[in-house]
């Protein structure tokens, strides 16, 4: 009889343990990124996963999917809009389809380095854009301080002026602010998924690309290009964006925790980017790729009309006031 009672008690404890575990994990979030695990931003995502699970006492479980395992950025954004428990690291250009103000974040030569652009994405003005995105598109910004570096030209020809890019088919994301910037810089913008860039250059389907340095080595593009021109034409700040429906389903304490941890993780990711830039330049040169500093003035002048073309001139003035503030 004692053995039966002992077995019954053990069984009951096991059932209770399973029930408590099920109760503890109340929410699931799947985070998709086009980046490779070697990218410094991925370290920020790992921090977000670990700290959010720990500080929520296991109530939120986070799973990371590098290399676009859940689909393209556009596909995952649509999943989020439909209420799926997914999040994605994405840029303002893609979000501008829903809230036009986000386009300014990808505009040419807007801010220099992380500290400048961070002032914009942590401002009250940015919070207004985020609220509009939530209400109109069903998307929730968790934080937008994930700096991936400044984007540069990746070619197999030497580039010093916009004239050198005449006829060059250059891969860029398909959002208007990106395509208009590349067109103004002298190249022919050619939207393609990032994962196809290596083979497209290799097979001469495109001639060139533009990207931040960590993405270059993450995609092993040093094998198919011979020149990186440090134009820094777009200061790539990205954000961790999820489903507004999923976010709104969280209790208020978890909503606060998710946003706080996303902001903290973005700082880790951005510092990681800053820390590796010089080493990446050195590694590229060692691999036989020319990494060239140039006078950016011709490119800055050539791209200023983009603000007027995309009706961003007034917003540019508002953002510039934030950048100029002490």
UniProtKB/TrEMBL annotation:
Keywords: Periplasm, Receptor, Signal. Residues 1-24 form the signal peptide. InterPro entries: DctP_fam, TRAP_DctP, TRAP_DctP_sf. It is found in: Periplasm. The keyword Signal applies. One of its GO terms (biological process) is transmembrane transport. GO terms for cellular component: outer membrane-bounded periplasmic space. It holds the Pfam family DctP. The keyword Repeat does not apply. PANTHER family: C4-DICARBOXYLATE-BINDING PROTEIN, PTHR33376. This is Tripartite ATP-independent transporter DctP family solute receptor. It comes from Allosediminivita pacifica.
